[in-house]
Amino acid sequence: MVELTPTAHRIQWISGLIAALAVLVVLIVSPGIDKGALSTLERIQKRGYINILTLNSATTYYQDIDGPNGFEYQLANWFAESIGVKARFITVPNFADLYPELLYGTGDIVAAGLSGNESNSNASVAYGPDYYKVSNQVLYRKFRADRPKKVRDLIGGSLKVVSGTAHVGLLTELLTQYPKLTWSEVDDMATEELIEQVESGDTDFILADSHEIALQRRYFPELRIAFEIGDPRHLRWAYNFSDDDSLKNVIEAFFTTIEKDGRLEQLIHRYYSHVARFNYSDIRTFTQRIESHLPRYEALFKREAKTVNLDWRLLASIGYQESLWVERAKSPTGVRGLMMLTQATAKQMKVKNRLDAAESIRGGAKYIARVLTRVPEHIPEPDRTWFALAAYNVGLGHVEDARIITKKRGGDPDRWIDVKENLPLLARKKWYKSTKYGYARGWEPVKYVENIRQYYEYLIGFETRALRENGVLKPQQEAAPLAPSL
Fold this sequence. Notes:
The chain is an alpha/beta fold. 47% of the residues lie in helices and 14% in strands. The chain folds into 3 domains: 2-132 and 235-274, D-Maltodextrin-Binding Protein, domain 2 (3-Layer(aba) Sandwich), CATH 3.40.190; 136-231, Periplasmic binding protein-like II (D-Maltodextrin-Binding Protein, domain 2, 3-Layer(aba) Sandwich); 280-464, Lysozyme. The strands form 3 sheets. Strands 1, 2, 5, 6, 7, 8 and 14 form a 7-stranded mixed beta sheet that branches. Strands 11-10-12-9-13 form a 5-stranded mixed beta sheet. Helix 5 (166-174) links the parallel strand 10 and strand 11 (184-186). Helix 14 (357-374) packs across helix 15 (383-394) and helix 15 (383-394) packs across helix 16.
C-alpha cells in the first residue's frame, strides 16, 4: 500500500505518458509486434496496482498509530486483492476535488462516500453498485431556544455544507420553495470540522451524511439531529467510462461476492453498528468521569493491560461498564470492586482485597486475558475480543451454546454479528433445553459488548484529540483501535 498526493501522482502520470508514447512509436514502426489493445482491467493488472482516490476522514481513510485504517481503506484493499493487484491510495484535500482528479486520470476509482448526486458529478463518470445507505441530516446544538423542525426554521441562521457534496444540490432545489434560505459552502473543511463548529457555536446548523454525523456526534453529547432533508442516498464507487466493461464487470462482481459471503455486512457492523444505538445521557456521564475518575486509575489500567498484552482502553472500558470506575462498588449479588469480581474469580486471580483498585484491575486484566485464550484462535480480531467480552459477562459455556445455535440456524459461529443475534435465544426454552449449559439471559452479553465497544471507541477519540494537541499525531491520524475483522 502506497499513499500519494495528486501532485506526486501527476508527475508519475506524465512520466508514464512519455514512456507510453515511446512504446507507441515502436509499435507503429514494428509491424511484427502485437498491436492488440489492453482492456482497462488488464492495464491495471499489468502495472500491479490500482489507484484509489479517497479522503482523510473517519468514514473513509485515515492513519492510526499502526498504519492505514478506515471503512473505504478496508473495502478497497479487498477489491485490489480480488483482481490480483495492490491498492495505492491517493488522498485528495477537498471533497470538491474528487471528480476533477478522477477525470484528470489521477485515480482509477473514487472510494470516498460518493452517491452520484454530488453537485460536480459528470456524465463521463460511471458508478458501481450501492453498498451503504445514508440520510441527509441537519445537526444543531441543543441549547438553541427552539429545536428546528422544518427547513423554514433554518432561515436566518448560519448553515454550512461541504462544497461539492450532494447536500449543495439538495439545498439548491429547496430555493424555489424557500427563496430566503441561505447557506455557506466550505471547501477547506471536512464534515468532522463542521461538527466541531456546531459544538463551539461558530455555526448554527450543518447538513451532512448520517454516518459521518453518527461517528463524530458521540464525542459531543450536546449535539442533536434536527430533521432529515430529501431521500436517503446510496453510496457507491465512481470510475471513468471506458470503451470496455472490464473494470465495471469486476467491480460489480466484487460487491456481489462480498454481499453474498457476508463480508460487506460484517465490515459495516465493524465500523458503524456500535454507534447506531447511541445513548447520549450515558456518554455525557462517561465524558465527565473521564475527567473526574479516569486519571486516578489510568496508570493502573496501562500497567496491567501491558502485563497481559491487552489494549488499556479496552480494559478501562470494561471497568467503566462494570462499576463506572468506582473502586468500592458493591452489588446485591456479591460482586465487588472496580472490576466487579465475584469471590470465585477473585480467588482464581489471587485477589485478596476486591475493593482495592490496583488488585481489582490486576484481577480483571488477568481474567479477561485468560478468557481470551479460551476463545478459538482461528476467530479473527476484533470478533475474538467481542466473544471474550461476552464470555466475561455470561460465561464461555453459554457463548459456545450460542455459537452452536448460530451454526444450526445457518449463521457463521465465528462472527460476532451472527452470534449476537442468537445469544438472546438462550432465554427461550425451545432453544436452551437442548444446550449443554441451559438457560441464560442472553440479551445481557449482547448489550454488554455493545456498551464496551462504544466506550472503547469513545476513549480512542478522546485520546486522539489529546495526542493531536500534544503533537504526537498529525491532524489526519487517529489513535489505533483493535484490528478490524476481515
